[in-house]
């Protein structure tokens, strides 16, 4: 009985310390990813609002004189909410999962981690798109169409960027700091993902919102190819 009590006394502080370390790491990850996504969205909105057509005129004009008239606060709130409740749990859990399954910094282990992240990326992108579409007030049907038309292209663009970031992260960065480094690198990616997730603009019924004037080329477009319209499946 004394032996059992002694073991509990020794184990309890280590367990408590482990949980405190985990919670601290999660909170830091939440702040890092939330800040990265919100910053990327703000930059994206600014660039979209200041985009000019062939005549040098701004495509998106504002009816107010406010310095931040271009800022869609509701859009930023949705992006930040998705970052906190979708992207953070995903990134935090995946980082620890791949490290547990493929421990170490050997080349083959790093390759396995990068491959795992790449193979799971479509699911992550789909969850982000679904969260944003639902928070905008649309249905799962609209979210499914969004994923069908925009996820493959977003995934293809991501595979040209994230494997290099992942290599640096897995090779040189300690586990607890990887989400932070990923968030710093993600600031650039989040400009793109904000545009891809929020364009084309949708009406409340899920149809594409049209506006008078010249046709715009979205930031998420590549080589002048427009984002595919969300046609019914």
How would you explain this protein's 3D organization?
The chain is 67% helix and 0% strand. With 233 residues, it is mostly helical. It is globular and about 50 Å long. The chain starts with a helix and ends in a 35-residue tail after the last helix.
Brief descriptors of the model:
233 residues; mainly alpha; 6 helices; 67% helix; 0% strand; disordered C terminus
Query: What Rg, in angstroms, do the CA atoms define?
Result: 21 Å
Main sheet specs: none
Overall strand count: 0
Could you spell the SSE succession in H and E letters? HHHHHH
Oligomer status:
single chain
Stretches where pLDDT is under 50 for at least 5 consecutive residues are 61-65, 212-233
Kindly report how far apart the N and C termini lie. 66 Å
Which descriptor suits the 3D outline? globular
Q: Share of helix among residues?
A: 55-70%
Which secondary structure elements does this structure contain, and how are they paired or packed?
Elements: H1 2-49, H2 73-101, H3 107-135, H4 140-158, H5 162-172, H6 178-198
Helix pairs in contact: 1-2, 1-6, 2-3, 2-6, 3-4, 3-5, 4-6, 5-6
Brief digest:
The chain is mainly alpha-helical.
